[in-house]
Description:
Blueprint: H1 6-19, H2 26-35, H3 39-46, H4 51-73, H5 76-86, H6 94-97, H7 102-109, H8 112-128, H9 132-156, H10 164-178, H11 182-200, H12 210-232, H13 240-273
Helix pairs in contact: 1-13, 2-13, 3-12, 4-9, 4-12, 8-9, 8-13, 9-10, 9-13, 10-11, 10-12, 10-13
Amino acid sequence: MMKQTEYEKNVLKEVSTWKQPKEKNFLQKGMSVVTAPLNKAAELVIDSPYLGEVLTKSISGLTTICNESAQTTVRFQAIYSDISSRSELTVRELGDIEKVNLPILDKASSGLLPKYVAIAATEGGGTGALGLPGMVIDIPSLILINFRAIGEYATYYGFDIELQEEKIYILNILSLASAPTDQAKHVAMAQLAKIATQVAKKQTWKELEQLFFVNMIKKMAEALGIRLTKAKLAQTVPVLGAFVGAGFNAYYTEKVCNAAYFLYRERFLARKYNLEIK
């Protein structure tokens, strides 16, 4: 029976620490200061009978499309080649990644966070300067960027993003990153653990359940779109728009990338050593 290396033990400790509540960093505190006074105004706009409905329907309707689009842009062969160049093993398919040592995969995926934070911030700054009209472009773009980021993390650690259960897992990571309260974070984390456990036990989704999961994805996508709409309404304020747009996108994408990084590493080790994810 294989024994965990010291590196792997430390990774599991890091994941456990990450899952615990922690103080906000500088960027998070800065975003709170900027957006806190605008929360009530955001609630009024999003709950208005016309404007709020137009915004949420436009954005949530595009969210599920973003999911599919992001998956088609993940360059699987490029990732396999990247891992192969760093390893003594040749990676030709997802199953080969299970045999690669975790430090190699961590090194290979290390550039994803700065890359996607920069992309998201640039996109948010540009659309944020447009005010309210820019939000209809910005939020689907932000979701697309983060879908793709999670898809790359998943692929680097050997998980198939084309599976229905993995699509739901990705949406739950996005939901976790956008959770407005500790309670919402706990719910998202519990759901992520549940899905990971089901996948690890190779529980397949029955054909009769497909419609149920399609509806689940749609509802989660709508909730995510509405949540991000509320969070980003502050960027409609003149002058602050570009700053808040870029800042929020960077903040949210950093949270998404960190979540994907820790969660897929945990799942990689759970699969390797038949560990229970909590």
